[in-house]
Amino acid sequence: MDPALRTDRSRSTVSSVGLVAKTRVQEAATHLVDIATWLAGRGVRAVFERDAADMVELPDDAVVADRDVLPTLVDMILVLGGDGTLLGMGDRIAEADVQIPILGVNFGSLGFLTEITLPELYPSLESAIAGTATIDERLMLRAGTIRDGHEIDHQIVLNDVVITKGALARIIALSIWVNDDFVTDFRADGLIIASATGSTAYNLAAGGPIMHPAVDAIVLTPIAPHTLTNRPIVIPGGSVVRVQPTIDQDADEVYVTFDGQTGSRLQGDDRIVVQRHSQPLRLIRASTRSYFELLHQKLKWGGR
Predict the structure, then answer these.
(1) Among 82, 99, 145, 202, which residue has the fewest nearby CB atoms (within 10 Å)?
(2) Residue 41 burial by CB count (10 A; 0-12/13-18/19+): exposed, middle or buried?
(3) Active-site residue numbers?
(4) β-strand pairing of 271-276 with 262-265
(5) Cα dihedral sign for 105, 289, 285, 5?
(6) Owning domain of residue 240
(7) Is residue 237 part of a domain?
């Protein structure tokens, strides 16, 4: 197995924890001060993400940091929210180029990544601080936007990179290369480039396969392809994927989005290059259930 995808036990010392809560979810906010007090009783400093801090009354000596800076100030991050909140924080950890674990407690709807339940919060936090938590190291993807031969932007994602048409646009034409090999031309509503972690997100809704998160692979899934022979394909995780949309500036709207968090409109001869990011995301998971139990619980996988 690729070392970037291994599951291990954390043995690092945790002296500070970043606290992030889903904006406008007051149920999550009510736990922030209690968690900070619990941490202080164990000699661990709490650092509040600024938006989370604005949701509660904090003592004057509370430490507060912007979301982009938070990963550089703490030894781990605790997210109270849904998968979107965790994705946004995971991407920032990668951009900060730090190797700190993230623990997600579900206050959202699905909670596939934020799988820890509220009753499991303190036992999971205790394990993380003690260095006995089980940590999955998940492959992340780096996507660069190339224009006129230069990279004008890049994003790091845990789930997926999606190239899609605008709401009123026509079907778009896409050309795909993997490494130096031409793969295909096709017409569709778009293309999903997903990691194994992201295989249970938009990829699954578009008819792509479920991949176990320990699989070192990337999946390319066309969205509503014009031809039935254009099927999803799984490629090695070390591959470099290049996608070239054919864009008529007067008629087409083509967008690229990253983990459903951010995105931009593509122009002219823009192309997207996606490959493995240099570092994985360290995701603390519940020790009480397997990945397959998670599929059963969250996706009703195998149910009648």
Answers:
(1) 99
(2) exposed
(3) 83
(4) unpaired
(5) negative
(6) 141-276
(7) yes
DSSP 210: P
Tokens in use for 157? 């994602």
Q: 122 near 151, Cβ under 8 Å?
A: no
Asked if residue 213 and residue 289 are part of one domain, the reply reads no
- The encoded tokens of residue 208 equal 């792509």
Instruction: Name the nearest CA neighbour of 113 among 300, 301, 302, 294.
Output: 294
Q: What residues are paired with 141 via a beta bridge?
A: 157, 276
Residue closest to 232 by CA, chosen among 212, 257, 254, 206: 206
| Two structure tokens written together for 228 | 């039935």
Joined together, the tokens standing for residue 62 give 């509370």
Half-sphere exposure of 156 (CA within 13 A, CB side): 18
Q: Are residues 46 and 64 in the same domain?
A: yes
Instruction: Decide if 304 is inside a domain.
Output: no
- What is the CATH number for 155? 2.60.200.30
31/124 Cα distance (integer angstroms)? 15
Q: How far out from the chain centre does Cα 223 lie?
A: 20
Q: Please name the residue ranges forming H helices in 54-143.
A: 83-96, 121-130
Q: What are phi and psi of 38, to 5 degrees?
A: -60, -45
Between CA 70 and CA 92 the distance in angstroms is 9
